[in-house]
Design a protein that fits this description.
Layout (H helix, E strand, L loop, with lengths): L2 H24 L4 E9 L10 E4 L4 E4 L5 E6 L3 E8 L6 E7 L4 E8 L18 H7 L5 E4 H5 L9 H5 L5 E2 L9 E2 L7 E5 L2 E2 L18 E7 L13 E7 L7 E6 L3 E9 L4 E10 L1 H8 L5 E15 L2 E26 L4 E29 L2 E23 L9 H18 L3 E19 L2 E16 L8 E13 L7 E10 L1
Parallel strand pairs: 1-7, 11-14
Antiparallel strand pairs: 1-4, 2-3, 2-5, 5-6, 8-13, 9-10, 11-12, 13-14, 15-16, 16-17, 17-18, 18-19, 19-20, 20-21, 21-22, 22-23, 23-24, 24-25
């Protein structure tokens, strides 16, 4: 089967059904209320907020993007009530008319709740009921909770996750995640839906994500959907921060580095986010120990365009880089056979290491109706590392002619070493992916996700002498059928690959 035709057919089908549902939605004998719920201070979209129309007697919760839709045949003046834990209750009057559609943007203010002591008591369940009710865990951590986590130096999302059940680490230094016996390389790490390869700095001392630039982190340590493709241990999905309604800048200074995050909106539809971080290892270590010629930088930026409540575009740029530039100098002797004497010169061993991530992604979300969403995500993720070794020399400027012969011998040996070191390690891996999916929820307790993913993998490893690179192309078809109230799901994942 020609999979290029399959991708084109899927995209055409998406737009066909989009127009079909849009047309049927126009022939409506109901009053419709569409809206989005936003945190007034941070600009964050609030999911799972409770809403209901008092007179009509209907209610629902906002989806993962903060959207909601009401349809009712009742008319007249009604009251829309919005409640969300940690926020003030919101009430607004709405005038319902048949065939009319309303678009609302609801801003909620945070609220501090003082509760009395609560005593919780329960009987211990038997083993059989535990086995029947077991379901895969999903951990969701908001950015505000990351800021309160104990840490040394930079706040690290991975170190916070290590404190959760079923997650461990090999030592106290590394933030890498080992989940239920799996390896650290068996976890899928996504940033705004795009895959990030090895999101850590040198020796795993810190992850590459600045917590001030993040909105929420979702970790699924098992039983994850076919939507995420094939991974063994877990899926870690990280969402960047939503642009704040007003310009906001945060600067943090640490013993090992500094970071800056700025966010805001150009207008009601266009927002921006930028975060940058750098280390001070090469500066601060001189005060306490020998010089360590190492430093790292990472950055994250995004532009969000929301032309309407139903549509959202987002461009995300992410990168990190590490430099280890080690120069070792030592003295050696040149010999003169004429006078049987020596003279010192300096030899320099150069050892450079560099590795980096580069990521660019474009994501589009369109809410066709209250039961149908379309998502398209395209990204390029590039991971590379290199190691360079060389030897150099510093000879005295007034070196006598009797030492020239031995000097030429030293230079010749150095050239042989440099020839052996030349291009000894230069590795790169590039992932180019296009993914389209449809989310359909015809009932409150039933949902379906279907779509296709096309990936191009290009690898160039110096140690295998693959200077021309290899390309591995994959197509993923995924289908996820999930009755949500029963916590059961069935997933189908099909993988077709070919080598060129």
């Amino acid at each position: 089967m020609d999979y290029r035709k399959a991708i084109v057919l899927l995209i055409l089908s998406i737009f066909f059904f989009s127009n079909l549902l849009a047309d049927t939605g126009q022939k409506n004998d109901k009053a419709t209320i569409n809206g989005i719920i936003i945190d007034k201070e941070s600009g964050e979209y609030l999911s799972d907020a409770n809403l209901w129309l008092v007179k009509s007697g209907i209610g629902q919760t906002s989806d993962k993007n903060g959207h909601f839709t009401f349809k009712t045949q009742k008319t007249g003046l009604d009251t829309l009530v919005v409640k969300f834990m940690g926020y003030q209750t919101y009430k607004t009057p709405v005038l319902l008319e048949i065939g009319k559609e309303y678009n609302l943007e609801i801003l909620l203010r945070s609220n501090v709740l003082l509760l009395e002591t609560i005593n919780v008591a329960a009987n211990r369940p038997d083993i059989e009921s535990l086995m029947m009710d077991a379901d895969p865990s999903i951990y969701t951590i908001k950015a505000r909770n990351l800021r309160n986590a104990p840490t040394v130096g930079f706040t690290d999302v991975f170190r916070t996750l290590q404190k959760l059940p079923s997650i461990s680490s090999t030592n106290e230094v590394s933030p890498q995640l080992y989940i239920r016996g799996g390896g650290a390389d068996q976890n899928l790490v996504l940033l705004d839906g795009a895959c990030v390869y090895y999101p850590f700095h040198f020796l795993g001392i810190n992850s590459s994500f600045n917590h001030d630039a993040l909105d929420q982190v979702m970790l699924s340590p098992g039983g994850f959907s076919a939507f995420f493709g094939g991974r063994l241990s877990s899926v870690l999905s990280i969402n960047s921060k939503h642009p704040t309604n007003h310009p906001e800048t945060t600067i943090n200074l640490h013993s090992i580095g500094a970071d800056l995050t700025t966010s805001g909106k150009v207008n009601e539809k266009l927002g921006y986010l930028f975060s940058g971080r750098t280390s001070f290892f090469d500066v601060t270590n001189k005060l306490f120990m020998d010089d360590i010629p190492y430093n790292f930088q990472d950055w994250l930026g995004s532009i969000t365009f929301t032309p309407s409540l139903k549509q959202k575009w987002q461009i995300t740029v992410f990168g990190n880089q590490d430099h280890l530039d080690n120069h070792q100098k030592y003295t050696a002797d040149l010999f003169s056979l004429q006078n049987n004497s020596t003279k010192q010169y300096k030899a320099i061993d150069i050892d450079k290491m560099f590795w980096s991530n580069r990521l660019v992604s474009l994501k589009w979300n369109y809410k066709i109706s209250e039961i149908l969403d379309v998502n398209i995500n395209a990204f390029k993720s590039d991971y590379n590392n290199s190691m360079e070794k060389a030897r150099d020399f510093e000879f005295p400027e007034d070196l006598e002619e009797e030492y020239w012969q031995d000097r030429d011998r030293v230079i010749k040996e150095g050239n042989l070493i440099n020839r052996d070191y030349k291009d000894n390690v230069k590795n790169s891996f590039i992932d180019k992916t296009l993914k389209a999916s449809v989310y359909w929820r015809p009932k409150d307790n039933y949902s379906l996700i279907a779509g296709v993913e096309r990936s191009f993998y290009s690898a160039d490893y110096s140690w295998k002498k693959l200077s021309d690179g290899t390309i591995d192309r994959y197509i993923y078809f995924f289908f996820d059928n999930a009755p949500e109230q029963q916590y059961l799901y069935s997933s189908v994942f099909k993988n077709q690959n070919s080598f060129f």
